[in-house]
Amino acid sequence: MTVRVADVAERWLADAYDLVARGWCQGATARAAGGTPVEPESADACEWSMTGALVRVWRLAEEADEVLGLAALGRANLALTAATGAIPGTWNDTPGRRQSHVLEAICEAVSLVSVVVVLAERRGPLAAAPPAVADAAAPGELGSAA
Q1: Of 20, 42, 46, 80, which cross-links 38 as Cys (Cβ 3.0–4.6 Å)?
Q2: How far apart are CA 13 and CA 9, in angstroms?
Q3: Nearest to 30 by CA among 60, 10, 6
Q4: What is the largest CA-CA distance in the chain?
Q5: Which positions ≥6 away from 53 have C-beta within 8 Å?
Q6: Can you tell me the distance from the alpha carbon of 50 to that of 108, in angstroms, rounded to the nearest whole number?
Q7: Can you give the pLDDT of all 146 residues of the chain as single tens digits?
Q8: DSSP assignment string, 52-65
Q9: Partner residues linked to 48 by β-bridges
Q10: How far apart are CA 73 and CA 125, in angstroms?
Q11: 3-state DSSP assignment of residue 142
């Protein structure tokens, strides 16, 4: 059975969702119980940023194929970028951002993984860019509001 990059990316985003649902943070990729920043894969971590949760899942994954793992991480990150319309880490840390916003964005990213893949195959690197960037580069191709 062949494992698809999109399948792994979707699974990892779902796992990242579970981590963020358990505990979310801003200003660090992960935090321990006392609020001290730690590496996302640390046993002490109990809160994660959007990107920290994805990094933890990737670093602790048991994917046998390193190339598949890196491709899945890239696809998941592109889907997060498409879902937020920004750099995911910066978006996560925006003042006023809430855990519920982050969880909604991760859910959106799961639904976009396959779309990002199809667009990337059709158009190249700009396909996974946030809509405003992609529309500016190729007016009308992604259904811009114009």
Answers
A1: 42
A2: 6
A3: 60
A4: 49
A5: 15, 16, 17, 19, 20, 40
A6: 13
A7: 456 899 999 999 999 999 999 999 999 999 999 999 999 999 999 999 999 999 999 999 987 688 999 999 999 999 999 999 999 999 999 999 999 999 999 999 999 998 865 555 555 544 444 444 333 333 333 333 33
A8: HHHHHHHHH---S-
A9: 24, 30
A10: 15
A11: coil
Query: Residues 53, 13: contact at Cβ < 8 Å?
Result: no
- Distance (Å, rounded) from C-alpha 144 to C-alpha 12? 30
Q: Which residue has the tokens 């500016």?
A: 136
How far apart CA 8 and CA 95 sit, in angstroms, is: 31
Which amino acid, 112?
Answer: L
Tokens for 108? Answer: 């959106």
Domain spans of the chain, in order of start: 5-137
Tokens 């879902």 correspond to 83
Q: Which two tokens stand for residue 68?
A: 């598949």
